[in-house]
Write a structure and sequence with these properties.
The protein is an alpha+beta fold. 44% of the residues lie in helices and 9% in strands.
């Protein structure tokens, strides 16, 4: 015998989305949506109307559905919504031809070319440099006994790492840090600051690519940088144009640094607010517990409070149904990864942080042909950063009430503005180290 339908009067009111309170803890609102409106049409703060997909099964299906285009040209956008999807400033800066904005066959060609340069081997060979950068950044503040883990650690580490990987000269990397800092503010800086930073970055990348192309040796040297690899990569004799290479370098930088900032920041915050799980990981790092806990732990941190809250924009190219809901051609669709990864229909005790969770096919880096190309690098940086942090500063503790912490505004990413911490000063650091 089936239960009678729940009376509508028993349904709690729909939560308000995209407020500051929602940004602090969106998970109760996402739980409501999963249960009562799993494919929900809403007006975003930008004024754009879009569908939010919140259940795991629907999300995984939507991420792989090629009727949902990544190309903004398919958006049936009214005049007031013009240019309000995608990365601010990328249209004016002519940086649209990257993997987040195109579909097959162009996506297939570009991803194959980029994959030839951005190989697992290249990432693995980069591990010692990531460890070196991690230690150098820690050396800058461990003697103080206090730090802001976002400003002092989680933000600069992936910026310097991706700059090194791309082949940006050391003397220019602080400019990249400034431009990236403007982009990560999500409107918190001066009006037009993001667009100006994107334009400056594009101009710099085009000049750097042009210079590297002119100086490219006939054979790759050991440890060749990624921009040189992008220039060298070919598919049946076809190479990336300089504009395509600039757009790809830009999106590798943009997608590769902010996701890792948030992985480190959100991960550290989760560990600091779950002392039993943090103690387990420290025992594992010391060799006294499950040696695989760092590997499974990173995956659990990605699932539990991952760096990407919503997958990037998709647009219906024809009428389709998702989760029983009709979607019209031209409608924007946003897959809510944070909601899908807390779906109790897929994960046991989804609101519990369990670093030893094994059955953990989360969607933190997407699914299908648009699965994040930089996921191996982000995982490497996340593992290195958190393991080194907990090993060198074993008594690390929050220096603020969690309720006082503020999360950055924005639609796609999820991350803290600041993460103040205290610890016993480390006397063995080398002080001011040149990155």
């Amino acid at each position: 015998m089936t239960n009678p339908p729940r009376p509508q009067a028993d349904v709690p009111p729909a939560p308000e989305l995209f407020t500051w309170e929602f940004a602090t803890d969106p998970y109760p609102a996402y739980a409501w949506l999963r249960e009562h409106a799993p494919v929900h049409r809403t007006r975003l703060p930008s004024g754009v109307e879009a569908w939010l997909v919140t259940r795991y099964a629907d999300a995984k299906e939507a991420l792989a559905d090629q009727r949902l285009s990544k190309n903004p040209a398919h958006h049936d956008e009214p005049a007031h919504a013009k240019g309000k999807t995608g990365i601010p400033g990328e249209r004016k800066a002519e940086l649209m031809t990257h993997l987040l904005n195109i579909d097959p066959p162009d996506h297939t060609r570009l991803r194959r070319l980029v994959s030839k340069a951005f190989t697992p081997r290249r990432v693995a060979e980069f591990a010692p440099r990531v460890q070196e950068l991690t230690d150098q950044l820690l050396d800058r503040f461990t003697e103080r006994g206090e730090a802001d883990l976002i400003h002092d650690f989680a933000f600069p580490l992936p910026i310097y790492a991706i700059c090194d990987l791309l082949g940006v000269p050391r003397e220019d990397q602080d400019d990249f840090r400034d431009w990236a800092g403007m982009m990560i503010r999500h409107g918190g800086g001066p009006r037009g600051g993001v667009a100006r930073s994107v334009k400056k970055m594009r101009g710099y990348l085009l000049e750097l690519i042009h210079r590297k192309r002119a100086e490219l040796p006939a054979r790759p040297a050991p440890g060749e940088d990624l921009i040189s690899g992008l220039i060298r990569a070919s598919d049946h004799g076809e190479h990336l144009t300089e504009n395509e290479a600039a757009a790809m370098a830009f999106i590798l930088l943009f997608a590769g640094f902010e996701t890792t900032v948030n992985l480190i920041g959100n991960g550290a915050y989760a560990l600091l607010t779950h002392p039993e799980q943090r103690a387990r990981l420290q025992r594992s790092l010391a060799g006294d517990d499950d040696p695989t806990l760092l590997e499974t732990g990173i995956e659990e941190l990605l699932r539990y409070d991952g760096p990407v809250e919503l997958a990037t924009w998709r647009f219906a190219t024809e009428p389709l149904r998702i989760g029983g809901q009709d979607i019209a051609p031209g409608d924007p669709v946003l897959v809510v990864l944070a909601a899908a990864d807390r779906d109790p229909a897929r994960f046991a005790d989804p609101d519990v942080l369990d670093l030893s969770r094994r059955d953990n096919q989360h969607l933190g880096y997407g699914h299908g042909i648009h699965y994040c190309l930089g996921a191996p690098l982000a995982r490497l940086e996340g593992r290195t950063a958190l393991a080194t942090l907990l090993t060198r500063l074993p008594d690390l503790r929050l220096a603020a009430d969690p309720a006082e912490l503020r999360w950055r505004g924005g639609l796609i990413m999820r991350g803290l503005r600041t993460l103040p911490v205290e610890f016993a000063p480390e006397r063995s650091g080398t002080g001011q180290v040149r990155i």
